[in-house]
Amino acid sequence: MEDKGISRAVITRLPRYYRYLGDLKHEGVERISSQELSRIMHVTASQIRQDFNNFGGFGQQGYGYNTNYLHQEIGKILGLDKDHYMILIGAGNLGQAIIKYMHFKKRGFYFKGAFDIDPSLHGTMVDTVMIYPMDQIAPFVKEHGIDMAVLTVPKAAAKETAELLYDTGIKAIWNFAHVDLETPPHIEVENVHLYDSIMKLSYNLHKNG
Ligand code: NAI
After folding, report:
1. Dihedral pair phi/psi, residue 188, rounded to 5°
2. What is the percent of the chain where pLDDT is above 70?
């Protein structure tokens, strides 16, 4: 499947398609037209067709999309057909909540270990995940074939913590610290800011005075 040169905007929309198609599959809907998908998702049918054409179309004219197939193919584009092994760094309030969110496992994201500078946390468990000292990160990543790290350390520690990961074999960082990390080309990074979302909500709430 050709997916080179796909715009970031299209890629950003794929998780939403994946989510809706998962729900439709769950409800037993076997086929769906772009018009019907458009109605449910509040996206124009032509936008949907254009987005899917980037990946070869998926649909059959006049026949609609096979929900199961489409869900599966979008999942493959998103890399969800592969398992991902993760570590988390900074096992405080947010870090522990993320580890405890069991739905990641269903999607193939597995936490293998957590790391923290606080010695009182070492050797303790969050759910089924052990917290280790920071100096064990590099050997742990190699031993467990870890490809992703989740960063939930304070902002001031984020850059130096990310740098510890660069030569370990980690391929991606999911960063929650309130700083936009810039990583070397061999490391993908996704900076997550829940606060941006609530600021948008606040704007919408107040835009009319
Ligand atoms: P917390 O204080 O409960 O946890 C932080 C943990 O990081 C502690 O266990 C601490 O010992 C550990 N830590 C501190 N320095 C470290 C270092 N150099 N190396 C390894 N571990 C270190 O804080 P909380 O509430 O869990 O927040 C964590 C981070 O997530 C903060 O940066 C916060 O601003 C951010 N945050 C981001 C959100 C987002 O939407 N992106 C939402 C909520 C919090």
Report:
1. -80, 145
2. 97
Determine if ligand 1 sits within 6 Å of the CB of residue 161. Answer: yes
What tens digit of pLDDT does each residue of 88-121 get?
Answer: 999 999 999 999 997 888 889 999 999 999 999 9
Q: Is 178 in the pocket of ligand 1 (CB under 6 A)?
A: yes
Rounded distance from Cα 161 to ligand 1 centre (Å): 12
102: which 2 tokens?
Answer: 């069991």
What residue spans in the chain does CATH classification 3.40.50.720 cover?
A: 84-196
> What CATH class is the domain 2-77?
mainly alpha
Q: Is CATH 3.40.50.720 correct for 84-196?
A: yes
CB 134 within 8 A of CB 117: yes
